């Protein structure tokens, strides 16, 4: 399978002719090099409702007919817009045509903010995903603080690749992400959710060097860089 990092938390996966998009944020990201209209999708996985994770979800779903996988509240909200959805909730897993998806907890918030109307609509819990695709295990943490149950994922899953936020301020920073990587015992880590805005500027190369120092492997991927698993 091919995994491509598009900046912020956006990851696309191509496996056996299926296209999966996690947290599509292209049009609002100055650093993104892919246009939402060029994104292929059979499934769109959303960790939570913040704009930097789902800004382009509706447009891509409309253009492709992709099914959106999200927590019950967010999925239902998007179904009201006529989109195909598959609601899940924390701890649940489901076998999709491309592989298995387990929705994991994340410590963050999840809401849709309408600046014009000055309203905030809560969308249930934020989440992460443990994906089993082609016998490989991929963990996308979503936006989250460090939490101890990551050790459970590490003990019960043989994680090949983990996407962990390092931006700090809104999520874990690099120091906590190092602890997370250790608990997850991930064979490789890709830092995400950094450098998109001034508030989350980080040195991803330094983070990967620190991973190396604790005996783990990190890949500070450039935008649109690809990893094969
Ligand atoms: Ni967020
Ligand atoms: Mn975010």
TrEMBL record:
InterPro entries: Metallo-B-lactamas, RibonucZ/Hydroxyglut_hydro, UPF0173, UPF0173_UPF0282_UlaG_hydrolase. Pfam families: Lactamase_B_2. GO terms for molecular function: hydrolase activity. The keyword Hydrolase applies. Residues 7-193 form the Metallo-beta-lactamase domain. Gene3D superfamilies: Ribonuclease Z/Hydroxyacylglutathione hydrolase-like. Keywords: Hydrolase. Belongs to the UPF0173 family. This is UPF0173 metal-dependent hydrolase A3783_03530. The lineage of its organism: Bacteria, Bacillati, Bacillota, Bacilli, Bacillales.
């Amino acid at each position: 399978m091919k995994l491509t990092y598009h900046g912020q938390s956006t990851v696309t996966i191509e496996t056996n002719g299926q296209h999966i998009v996690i947290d599509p944020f292209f049009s609002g990201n100055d650093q993104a090099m892919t246009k939402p209209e060029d994104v292929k999708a059979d499934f769109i996985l959303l960790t939570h409702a913040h704009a930097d994770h789902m800004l382009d979800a509706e447009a891509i779903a409309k253009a492709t007919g992709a099914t959106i996988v999200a927590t019950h509240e967010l999925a239902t909200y998007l179904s009201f817009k006529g989109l195909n959805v598959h609601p899940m909730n924390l701890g649940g897993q489901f076998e999709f045509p491309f592989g298995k998806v387990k929705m994991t907890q994340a410590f963050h918030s999840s809401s849709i903010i309408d600046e014009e109307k000055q309203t905030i609509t809560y969308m249930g819990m934020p989440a992460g995903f443990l994906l089993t695709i082609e016998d490989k295990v991929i963990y996308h943490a979503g936006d989250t603080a460090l939490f101890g149950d990551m050790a459970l994922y590490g003990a019960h899953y043989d994680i090949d690749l983990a996407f962990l936020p390092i931006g700090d301020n809104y999520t874990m920073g690099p120091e906590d992400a190092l602890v997370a990587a250790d608990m997850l015992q991930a064979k490789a880590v890709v830092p995400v959710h950094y450098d998109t805005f001034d508030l989350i500027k980080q040195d991803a190369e330094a983070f990967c060097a620190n991973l190396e120092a604790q005996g783990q492997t990190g890949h500070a991927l450039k935008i649109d860089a690809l990893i094969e698993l």
